[in-house]
Design goal:
The protein is an alpha+beta fold. The chain has two domains: 30 residues; 94 residues, Immunoglobulin-like, CATH 2.60.40.790. It has one helix and seven strands, in the order αβββββββ. Strand 3 and strand 4 form a beta hairpin. The longest helix has 29 residues.
């Protein structure tokens, strides 16, 4: 019986290694478009409080005038284009991981926002969008009378 356990543990370990390899492959592919190129959609962080939502998107090399932001209902849309690197002369790429091209990223917001007061700023390639929560959706304290 001891021999069986010793033999079985390496097989179980190999199965776990294979599972880990498949999960890594799956996550790696989720960052790649169907054409085999990395997606140029910006990576985002979303933060919320009772007063507002903050979206931060990584857009290195993109100028603010190349970005279009719109809020429709409870959805935020960021569009733009990341230009290709302009290399002088004829070059051979050994690795090309930075993607270029058009991007269009939508995200559902956790609550309605006041679209008239949305602010956006770009600093060091990070786009920060502040979306104030709509007044009618803010939590209200109701006083109980006796």
């Amino acid at each position: 019986m001891m021999y069986y356990r010793r033999k079985w543990l390496p097989e179980r370990y190999q199965a776990m290694q294979q599972f880990q390899k498949e999960m890594n492959r799956l996550f790696d592919q989720s960052m790649v478009t169907r054409y085999g190129m990395p997606s140029c959609n910006p990576l985002m962080n979303v933060y919320t409080s009772d007063e507002h939502a903050i979206i931060q998107a990584e857009l290195p090399g993109v100028s603010p005038d190349q970005v279009e932001i719109s809020v429709i209902g409870e959805s935020l849309n960021i569009r733009g284009e990341r230009a290709a690197a302009n290399m002088d002369g004829e070059v051979t790429y050994h690795r090309q991981e930075r993607s270029c091209g058009k991007f269009d990223r939508s995200i559902e917001l956790p609550f309605p926002v006041n679209s008239d007061k949305v602010e956006a700023k770009m600093n060091n390639g990070i786009l920060t969008i502040i979306l104030p929560r709509a007044e009618e959706d803010k939590p209200r304290r109701i006083q109980v009378r006796s």
